[in-house]
Amino acid sequence: MAWTKTKTTVTVGVAVLVLVAMAVVVKLIFFPSVKDAYFMINNRSLQRVPAGLVIVRPTHFPSSPRKSSPPGIMETSVKGAQWMVGRNVTFLQLISMAYAYNPGRVALPFDPPNGNYDFLVTVSKDPQTRLQSAIHRKLGYIADVETQDTPVLALKVIDPDSPGLKISAPDEMGNTDLRNGKLYFTHQHLTVVTDGLEQMIKTPVLDKTGLTNFYDFSLVWNQQIQQQISNGTMDQATGQKILANWGLALQPDTASIEMLVVKKAM
């Protein structure tokens, strides 16, 4: 009896080892390790990443005085599918990407997660839904659109005769062009201004100018403005200075608008 018991124990032990070994092999074959190189903010690099990945993780690329790892987000089309990658991004940027919502209209909880994240989605269908599910599973947060009274910034006209904002000719084509130290906008509606400011200032911006035409305008393209626009961040003082050249200004207001409200999942 003792020998039988020992033999049975050994047999079970061997079976367990075999199962563990098989699990390791399956993991290596079907769930390969995620390489940091997959998170390069580069169109060609993203196209070479394996398909079928949905990753959300604390960033592996923290900025430091010695070696800077700037944040970045990128999307590209691969065989008709929309793949996306994010490197060293904030929780707000992660949520905005997952739900395709302007960060200026995302209401975070009182105590959002600290730290930055990397994300990667290389699936063929519903990439944003898959990213939402990963955020729910990994971080425990969900989001829904709700209409609520919200502090906003209202874009208003302060100088209707400003030469910085000119009505476009009807036959002009929409364009954005950088030359001679200035960024020129041609035949653009003011939604270009409100959407851009909203994304950089991280506050809802409403057009209350009453202006409905298409316009030509420009801004000085110096290193400070270039860096703020590239990083998707801009302080209100810089924004106000740019707008003043167009005879416009931002003023505090309150409005009932749709916001993407982020909550801890129950």
3D structure, described in words:
The protein is an alpha+beta fold. The chain has 2 domains: 36-139, no CATH class; 150-256, no CATH class. 32% of the residues lie in helices and 32% in strands. It has 7 helices and 12 strands. The chain has helices at 2-30, 43-47, 91-99, 127-139, 191-201, 223-231, 236-244, and strands at residues 54-58, 72-78, 81-89, 106-107, 117-121, 141-157, 166-167, 175-179, 182-188, 205-207, 215-220, 248-264. The strands form 3 sheets. Strands 1-5-3-2 form a 4-stranded antiparallel sheet. Strands 4-12-6-10 form a 4-stranded mixed sheet. The protein has a 4-stranded antiparallel sheet with strand order 7-11-9-8, with no helix packed on it. A hairpin with a 2-residue loop joins strand 8 and strand 9. It is globular, with a radius of gyration of 25 Å.
Please give the number of β-strands. Answer: 12
Outline: globular
Average predicted local confidence, pLDDT: 86
User: Reading side by side through the largest sheet, how are the strands ordered?
Assistant: 1-5-3-2
Report the sheet with the most strands, covering strand number, pairing sense and barrel closure.
Answer: 4 strands, antiparallel
Number of helices: 7
What is Rg? 25 Å
In whole angstroms, the N-to-C terminal distance is 53 Å
